[in-house]
Each structure stands twice: as C-alpha cells, then as structure tokens.
Design goal:
Layout lengths: L1 E3 L8 H16 L6 E5 L2 H14 L4 E4 L11 H19 L4 E6 H11 L15 E3 L6 E3 L14
Parallel strand pairs: 1-4, 2-3, 2-4
Antiparallel strand pairs: 5-6
C-alpha cells in the first residue's frame, strides 16, 4: 500500500521521481505484482501508471473504493470499505502478488482494523506497507517503508 497526499492535483517533478524510485525499489528487491489496484484520484493514478510502466505491469485497475474517506463516511465505514475491497482482491487473485495504491487515512484505517485497535498507527507519506496474505490472517511485513525516498528532499 502506498499512501498519497489528499490533494488531487498532478504529481510534481518530485512526485514523479518518487514514483520512479518506488518502482526501482520493488525491482531491486525482487518484488513483482501480477496486478496493481489504484485509487481513482489523479496523483495515485499517475503514481500507479509510472510504477506499472517501469515494472512492466499491464494490469492496472482503478477504484473509487480506495479513495480517502468520503464526506458521508466515518472511520468505521472507511475500515469496512477497505476490508471489503481487500477481501475482494484476495478472492480475485488468490495467492498472486498485487500492489495497491491508496491514501494515508484509508490505509491507516485498514491497518487499524487488521492489526492495531488503538489510534497509534502512523505511516510516512509515500511510504510502503507490505502485507502477506499467504495464510488465513494477514502478516504486516513493514520494513523501512520510506527506503526509496532516501536522498530526496522531504516535503
């Protein structure tokens, strides 16, 4: 999962470099995806397209289910929506690996619903969260989530 800022403008030059570095990180670490799912918001969509091009992934699915909380939703409703989406992906792709590009609060709420019942889940913007669903329950494989951002000036 890759959090994006809430602003729906185009990626800046820095954002493009971050997306390129993210794809290069996955390639260097041997992480590959059969399919990528992305929020339909512009910045997430652009990030996903850059990653897919560099990684040679042809299957990109855009979904409004991956956007931040809507004005008529509370935290619990976002958690349910994100869990529903992830459960649907698991049924669709089985044990294949996929990438999901979403937004800070959507990812944070999903992780809170899966692992952490309190309000202390913190994620870096443009960080990476890896989950392993090879068993019935997910395992949070979170290692150096911002490794691909080293050497890039922070916000």
């Amino acid at each position: 999962f890759f959090p994006e800022n809430e602003d729906d403008g185009s990626l800046t030059e820095k954002g493009i470099i971050q997306a390129q570095r993210l794809a290069e990180r996955f390639i260097n670490e041997g992480i590959c995806f059969k399919k990528v799912y992305s929020s339909s918001k512009k910045r997430a969509r652009e990030t996903a397209k850059i990653c897919c091009e560099i990684m040679g992934i042809e299957s990109l699915v855009l979904s409004d289910s991956l956007i931040e909380e809507r004005s008529d939703e509370n935290e619990e409703e976002v958690k349910k929506r994100m869990r529903w989406f992830i459960d649907g992906i698991r049924q669709e792709i089985g044990h294949d690996s996929c990438g999901v590009l979403s937004h800070y609060y959507a990812i944070r709420y999903l992780l809170k619903s899966l692992f952490v019942p309190d309000d202390k889940t913190r994620l870096p913007h443009t960080g990476v969260t890896l989950l392993d669903y090879t068993d019935l329950e997910p395992i949070w494989l979170d290692y150096n989530p911002s490794l691909h951002l080293e050497g890039i000036e922070s916000y």
